[in-house]
Amino acid sequence: MGLEPISIKNMEEKTNDLYEAVVVMSKKAKQVINERTMEKLMRVSDQTEMGVFDDEENINPEDYEELTKPTTVAVDSFVSGDLEWTKKSSESNSE
Predict the structure, then answer these.
(1) Half-sphere exposure for 25 (CA within 13 Å, toward CB)
(2) Reported confidence tier of residue 95, pLDDT bands at 50, 70, 90
(3) Angstrom distance (rounded) from CA 62 to CA 51
(4) What number of other Cβ atoms are within 10 A of residue 32's Cβ?
(5) Which of 15, 29, 56, 77 could make an SS bond with 82 (beta carbons 3.0 to 4.6 A apart)?
(6) What is the average per-residue pLDDT within 53-80?
(7) Is the pLDDT confidence value at 75 over 80?
(8) Rounded distance, CA 79 to CA 10, Å?
């Protein structure tokens, strides 16, 4: 379930700028983290009544579900070509 080494040539096929590739993958990983956090918050808010926490949630270790790491999800989607991004033009930033 670990992250496999990536060939730089594979990254160069997607973009000529390696820095850009790293930034895109890191932003995707942050997006995955935010989505997972929102899902967890929605589950917790559904379980609570009016913001009152009566009991702590007991998590059984046997029920633990290990998710794929966000960096692995981001790198896999970049390498497979599922990740799309656009560059901001420098002209719009200077105006």
Answers:
(1) 23
(2) very low
(3) 28
(4) 19
(5) 77
(6) 78
(7) yes
(8) 7
Burial class, 21, CB count within 10 angstroms (exposed 0-12 / middle 13-18 / buried 19+): buried
Reported as type and span, the H/E element at residue 94 is helix 90-94
Task: Take residue 68 and report the two structure tokens written for it.
Answer: 């794929």
Residue with tokens 């949630």: 57
Question: Alpha carbon 18 to chain centroid distance?
Answer: 19
C-alpha distances in Å from residue 79, one per residue of 5, 25, 35, 87: 11, 10, 21, 18
Query: Which of 87, 77, 6 is CA-nearest to residue 35?
Result: 77
**Beta bridge mates, 62:** none
